[in-house]
TrEMBL record:
Residues given in the record as ATP binding sites: P32, N33, G34, S35, G36, K37, S38, N39
Species this chain originates from: Tepidibacter formicigenes DSM 15518
Protein name in the entry: Chromosome partition protein Smc
Quaternary structure and partners: Homodimer.
Annotated function: Required for chromosome condensation and partitioning.
Compartment(s) where it occurs, according to its Swiss-Prot or TrEMBL record: Cytoplasm
Signal peptide boundaries: none
Length: 199
């Protein structure tokens, strides 16, 4: 599994459609200060489901949408598509190439797509569990991340190891199962109350 392509449109400092193709091997992004290098990483984290605008260096949701410049009008929406090579089948989906798309509007609406089919954030999260590239993943090490991991409490630090060992998926499934059990129990209690009232 590796990242093949990143397509940006209206994301932060990229108003026009910009395609970045990652060839085999190491890709370096170089440029002067403020030219948008970190915005490329922000785009990858955003399309993979990052919900914390603060960690994308913004204050509000619409801060990821191009704000306008002297020569270009502000955009009403932004879109990022990340294409991942999945020939080795690490992503649990029957496609050798997987594209994840996220689109957001100034109105606050946000949409996710997997291979151009609309889906929920939950679907993206589940697809990426235990691959290391999800929201809790360790494959993007931004400034300060190593310090954060080292100084975190042991529970939070453990999440990184859980992800690497492939445990996150099972922990997530267990939590989902417990949530369903709790809901079912509440429903049963409600039904019992109704029975009690009817009798
Ligand atoms: P450095 O080398 O200093 O870390 P960088 O190349 O990583 O810089 P970024 O931090 O990625 O640069 O980009 C900063 C630029 O992105 C700033 O010029 C900022 O104005 C621009 N920018 C951020 N958000 C938006 C937005 N919503 N619309 C337009 N431009 C934006």
């Amino acid at each position: 599994m590796y990242l093949k392509k990143l397509e940006l449109k209206g994301f932060k400092s990229f108003p026009s459609k910009t395609d970045i193709v990652f060839e085999n091997g190491i890709t370096s992004i170089v440029g002067p200060n403020g030219s948008g290098k970190s915005n490329v990483l922000d785009a990858i984290r955003w399309v993979l489901g990052e919900q914390s605008i603060k960690s994308l260096r913004g204050d509000k949701l619409e801060d990821v949408i191009f704000i306008g410049s002297d020569s270009k009008k502000p955009m009403n929406y932004c879109e990022v598509v990340l294409t991942i090579d999945n020939k080795d089948g690490i992503l649990d989906i029957d496609y050798s190439e997987v594209s994840i798309k996220r689109r957001a509007y100034r109105s606050g609406e946000s949409e996710f797509y997997i291979n151009n089919k609309p889906c929920r954030l939950k679907d993206v999260k589940e697809l990426l569990l235990d691959t290391g590239i999800g929201r809790e993943g360790y494959s993007i090490i931004e400034q300060g991340k190593i310090d954060e991991i080292l100084s975190n409490n042991s529970n939070n630090r453990r999440k990184v190891f859980d992800e690497a060992c492939g445990i996150s998926k099972y922990r997530y499934k267990k939590q989902e199962g417990e949530k369903n059990l709790k809901n079912t129990k509440e429903n049963l209690d409600r039904i019992n109350d109704i029975f009690y009232e009817i009798e």
